[in-house]
Amino acid sequence: MSRRASIPPGWLAQYGRLIGAWARRAQNRQDAEDATHDAVLRYLESDCAAVEDPAAYLRRSVSNRAVSLHRAQAVRQTVALHELAEDLHPATESAEERWRAQRLAQDMLAALAELPADCQETFKLRRLEGLSNGEIALRLGVSRNMVERHMMRAMRHLQDRLQDDGGP
Asked: Please, what's the b/e burial string for 56-83 (b: 16 or more CB within 10 A of its CB; e: otherwise)?
């Protein structure tokens, strides 16, 4: 028989404090909300009878998740071509480079087609339309956590399939 975790007293105030504290630290309220939501969901879905101090557990869980989100964001940051110094611009591509780019695009489309439809759609909405995880979650009717899982699955699959081509 599975026991559900009890919700700590003053839960809404604690939830608000967790979001507020991490929004100030990360300077990004959406990431703070995502981290808090993920930590709370994990807590409520697990058998937390062994957790002696739910408030401390949640603070640490939110902290860990916020750090993970921050690290993932740092990895994703890129610089636009027009912002690069002139000497850092890529050289004009040769016919061979154009052929390789076309081949890579074809291979990428083929690899994407191997994924389930929800992973494909998530990848396209994120990479082609530039939607946030929250926007994608609303559009697809899934949680932000599920959007992250679909993106991770898609990226791992593309990396595995395109490794020989110097893929994403």
From this structure: ebbbebbbebbeebbeeeeeeeeeeeee
Instruction: Say how far apart CA 147 and CA 99 lie, in whole Å.
Output: 33
Distance CA 29, CA 110 (A): 37
For 108-140, the pLDDT digits (tens) are: 889 999 999 999 999 999 988 888 999 999 999
Amino acid in the structure at residue 46: S
Phi and psi angles of residue 50, each rounded to the nearest 5 degrees, phi first? -80, -10
- The Cα 79–Cα 90 span in angstroms is 13
Contacts for 126 with CB less than 8 Å, ≥ 6 apart: 133, 136, 147, 151
Give how far Cα 85 sits from Cα of 6, 28, 154, 160, Å.
Answer: 56, 29, 32, 32
- For residue 144, which of 154, 134, 153 has the smallest C-alpha distance? 134
Whether this prediction's pTM lies above 0.85 is answered by no
